[in-house]
Amino acid sequence: MLRSSSPQTLDGVLWAEAASSAALRQYCALPKKGKPQGRESTVLAAFLISSPENPLNPTVLSLATGTKCLGAARLGPRGDLVHDAHAEVIARRALLRLVYAEISAENPSSWLVASGADGRWRLKDGHQLHLYITQLPCMYMTFRFCSSKAELSSAFLIIYLSICS
Questions:
Q1: Are 91 and 63 in contact (CB under 8 A)?
Q2: Is 67 inside a domain boundary?
Q3: Less Cβ crowding at N or C end of the chain, within 10 Å?
Q4: Alpha-carbon distance 124 to 111, whole Å?
């Protein structure tokens, strides 16, 4: 485990462990059918939400596995095949379905709130949305969401700690 006198780093390590435990626990609870067997492997991605009341107990909102894109030659003419089956893309699609379902439900969500009369929604104050991936994303995705080299290094460290501890 990484040793540091900085409480911020320690909190990041603790959170990474909590996030990876929540995602892996949810994945392990799923039936065996469709999971890798023997020497097979896959990438797991999950979107989690943490609340201000209990930030080290994140809730898994969506979870997916996947590793590849279909080439143009394998795409169906009817558009009925998923082109990009990377775990983070499928997890994002599942998250969006959940958000739309929460918005249209009669009972208000515990983590979403309407943010005005224009139909927009946002996370409730203090809630944070997180992405957990068991493998580093492709470089395009990594650089797209990180605004600086320091932020990129921090993202790699959290992902590394959560899969290597």
A1: yes
A2: yes
A3: N
A4: 5
Task: List b or e across 11-22, with b for residues whose CB sees 16 or more CB atoms inside 10 angstroms.
Answer: ebbebbebbbeb
Residue 21 has pLDDT above 80, yes or no: yes
Tell me the two tokens of residue 6. 């900085």
* Predicted confidence (pLDDT) per residue in 41-73, tens digit: 788 999 999 998 888 899 999 999 887 766 666
Mean pLDDT across the chain, nearest whole number?
75
Q: Is 103 inside a domain boundary?
A: yes
Catalytic residue IDs: 88
Amino acid at 33: K
pTM listed for this prediction: 0.70
pLDDT tens track for 90-104 = 899 899 999 999 988
112-114 vs 121-123, strand pairing mode: antiparallel
DSSP 8-state code for residue 31: -
Helix (H, G, I), strand (E, B) or coil at 115: coil
Contact status, residue 77 vs residue 97, Cβ threshold 8 Å: no
* The total number of structural domains that make up the chain: 1
For CA atoms 146, 26, 163, 70, the dihedral sign is negative
For 121, how many CA atoms within 13 A lie in the half-sphere containing its CB?
A: 14
1 belongs to a structural domain: no
In a domain, 2, yes or no: no
Q: Supply the pLDDT for residue 38.
A: 81
